[in-house]
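Following up on my earlier thread - several people asked me to post the actual chain instead of describing it. Fair enough. Here it is, all 599 residues.
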Amino acid sequence: MQTSLRLRRTLQSVHHHRRLNLKPPITTNHPSPSSIRTLSTTSPSPSSSSDAELRKYIGYAALLAFCGAATYYSFPFSDNAKHKKAHIFRYAPLPEDLHTVSNWSGTHEVQTRNFHQPETILDLENLVKDSNEKRAKIRPVGSGLSPNGIGLARAGMVNLALLDKVLEVDKEKKIVRVQAGIRVQQLVDEIKEYGITLQNFASIREQQIGGILQVGAHGTGAKLPPIDEQVISMKLITPAKGTIELSKEKDPELFYLARCGLGGLAVVAEVTLQCVERQELVEHTALSNIKEIKKNHKKLLSENKHVKYLYIPYTDSVVVVTCNPVSKWKGAPKFKPKYTKDEAIQDARDLYKECLTKYRADEITAKSPENNEQGINELSFTELRDKLLALDPLNKDHVIKVNQAEAEFWRKSEGYRVGWADEILGFDCGGQQWVSEICFPAGTFTKPSMKDLEYIEELKKLIEKEEIPAPAPIEQRWSARSQSPMSPAYSSAEDDIFSWVGIIMYLPTMDARQRKEITEEFFHYRHLTQSQLWDRYSAYEHWAKIEVPKGKEELAALQERLKKRFPVDSYNKARKELDPNRILSNNILEKLFPLSNTI
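Reply from S.P.:
Thanks for posting it. Predicted structure:
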């Protein structure tokens, strides 16, 4: 049977990535106690009718202020919600059947009464059929990790967390068939006994397979395509045509379009994936600089299976991370690190202690006991970076000091690490954040254009010229082309390679005003890169990170820009045929790909 408004397995295991919690609706504020005192101390003269009128209105105001104060101070807040006392708006409990679903960073959220979790394919088929007949929204949402909340819809969502089985494994051909709700890490764990694994991985492992494919996610490696290229067939549940199966041989045009279909064509129910032999990798981390990178860039791309650069703004430091299979003859390299983990992080700890003196140490430690010396010594570098940035996140000089501490951390963390691909290729992305990632052509595998490094140089100059408080890292990765026409890395030329560059601003605080200021600064940062760099490098945003503009002119410009790169007409034609009532759509899809001329 179908279960609604119930989260199990996937959603429970990733609660730190995606929250499903109750939040109250917003009601307006009332005057503060100070206004009561101001109003009640006024003492008008009773000698005239105008004075009487004034006393009447003062009485009304005092009554209103008293009610507001009573509501304000009597409202029950939990200990961890005391900061809400300073907010402009008041919160009250939600109805039991209304839930708030938000993405990992808390930057996008919706409230819905309709959250479906079918337990069988038959349940899913019936849900899609009934919803289509009723024209009820059931937007497919995976693990809810996308920074832009592309899977969220207030009117209703369907999540396949309970459809998470490995259905078939062909060990010889290295092919697996799975239900689309299975998480990446769960899949990898279940097929490792067969000696196989996925070809590549994104930074984290908590995505559902259906979701990670639909948004065109990627790992890194100039010879390795985005993850949608691993799909060799799919079972889709469509509103208009029911259950259909697609492959390279069966309706190839729709198959390639639907592989990166953004959840707008059908609910992906099952996926057949081409896997590879499971291998141990050796990861090498080294601190370099732009000059050295330019000399060795082509060699680094061609000789390493996986490679990425982490640039640190306002410094010349570049962290180079390469990963390759362990040599069958030489084995893993023998390496003794020069510094311990504690020594590597010590500069950041010292900076934090210095900053505590500047930023009222007693007050900060009183609010959060983990800010004392013992608590700080237990934090990872990314956790400590959040603590540092939270002290003054938009102060450029402060951010530069944090970046310099990060460069020192990486210098003292140089060395090797050996492990299985799913262990090694992950990356600690840090805490809650705003992120924008773009993809652009970088020549061919045999002849890189070097445009990827030119882009970074211009980006760093832009940051310094505009004095943007840009934290580290600026992450640069590569992929081979995708044959899915809706992929940002789509190309018909087999040898083409693409560079992916991500910029970031962390949200290291839960203070609403501070988060709003960081958000505004991030979008200013993003706008500068968009207006000065994107068109010149033919750069387009990752589908899970594209943000819809609020202004009509900006939205119209974005729509026209997308039409130049992607087959929007073909995509919309397929949407009309497969989902004529748009039950799988949401606000993002409707605005990016309008099915009429109205914006």
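Residues 1-47, 71-92 have pLDDT under 50 and may be disordered. That should answer part of your original question.
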